[in-house]
# Entry
Amino acid sequence: MATGAHGPTPSEYIVHHLGHLNLTGEAQKNIVDFSLFNWDTIFWSVSLAIVTAWLLYAASKRITSGVPGRFAGAIESIVEFVDEQARSIVHGDIRMIAPMALVSFIWIFLMNAMDLIPVDLLPWLWTKIYAAFGGDPHHAYMRVVATADLNGTLSLAIVVLGASIYYGIKIKKPGGFIHELFTAPFGKGILIAPFNLLLQIIEYLAKTVSLGMRLFGNMFAGELVFMLIALLGATGAWWGFGLHFVAGFVWAVFHILIITLQAFIFMMLALVYIGQAHEAH
# Structure
């Protein structure tokens, strides 16, 4: 997207690319806005969830008694790795927990990996489609990295919160779970019970917010760097195009580590929080 007299300024370019597709037809003013549905986040997260399910299903169909192929072997290695991590962290039945961790790792990795697609490609295609149906191309917002939307990452974190509460009640029984809310971490006592409950609530909230914010912050920053690199190619100068290519290649290679690491960290923290629900204070 060129800048200058016949194109947006750098600030307009970035603001447009940071806008979400919603019913207002305007760019989202705040980083998080729960009053709106960001349809691009919903579309890409659901689409990649389907891709995740298909990958795991396809791999399961290729598992045989002989030597597995490369694809099946790669998925099998990931499954074994996640299962080992789940067993070492969660001291209990992991028959449902390990699959959840596996799905979260692959799903988040795929959502993160959308950052590696050229930043203007899919938004440009959406602009053409939007205009073909009579829409104003200036309002054709499209963000493809669902994990760069705080609404999306907090939703994932809330699922982990729900799972940790569920297993806390399942393992300790409703009475034991409620008893722990009022007796940990300071112990039993009528006077200190409200403080125990307050700290428990703060702990649950802090875990949830930090889990969602960590993933969002890293992916949002990575997406923004790709936009800044894209602006180098819009200078029209040979040095700008050269820096655009070199910086884009280097950052993309480095970003592969980031997207993998962030998926791994989210999965591990989810296992830790669910594992803590299995333990008594």
User: Anything to note?
Assistant: The longest helix spans residues 193-232.
